């Protein structure tokens, strides 16, 4: 049986892995390659601060809501709905080693369908809060904005497309009380994060709101959730990334030339055009690959703007005749 066409898609270091796999030519039916927000030059530069970043982030969390709150507050992910789906995959329960995603699948842990807005905090280097804004729980782009009149700038000569509809998260100024509350609950120490603002994300099967993990009570067994002390960390990282440090350089060195050497159609999604290094800039001007910019998204482009990324992938498939557009959509 003939293997179906395969398109490799990878984000960040996963993008580097996808490039290396494509270069090995071990997939006979490889049809295309999509790399999301990883460029050799900027990746190698960022490695210098990666160790400090990993050691500075919380090493444990009191609950899944608190972990999700941290991911949004720290701008690791700018879309709350995306964070609820993806961030638990990075965590495991400290006592059992069971992954948070398996707990959610089995019903041991439950996240509600409604997520309140979460304050986003920008901190200075010394830890002081410089600004506070409130992030919407809605995706970056509303479905109503997706129509045939979508305004984008396309430079056909350079094969560069800038998504002008990749809008930033809605925000508003908080009143003085909210500002005081938010600044008091911001700290690198995970124990300082309040689960109250997203505490409603955990609920009982009966429909009544469960106690927040900020109080001293435990969650009753009949609710279907694990009994948990409020002051005891419950989750930690599944993978100790510090242990992978010896391999970081190897994944990214020479990445641009490897990417350009792949003969299949290629798509590079970037949050910032400045991340293009010399080799990629020349290759892009020569039309060797397609570039899509999402200037207002963060590093997790596919999570901050999932609808736009899906649209971009669909256009890539149609443009290279991997599939056909449906007229009924």
From TrEMBL:
Keywords: Hydrolase, Serine esterase. It is an enzyme of class 3 (hydrolase). It catalyses: [phosphatase 2A protein]-C-terminal L-leucine methyl ester + H2O = [phosphatase 2A protein]-C-terminal L-leucine + methanol + H(+). One of its GO terms (molecular function) is protein methylesterase activity. The keyword Translocase does not apply. Its EC number is 3.1.1.89. InterPro entries: AB_hydrolase_1, AB_hydrolase_fold, PPase_methylesterase_euk. Residues 132-167 are annotated as: Disordered. The keyword Kinase does not apply. Residues 149-159 have a biased composition (Low complexity). Residues 4-74, 233-311 form the AB hydrolase-1 domain. Belongs to the AB hydrolase superfamily. This is protein phosphatase methylesterase-1.
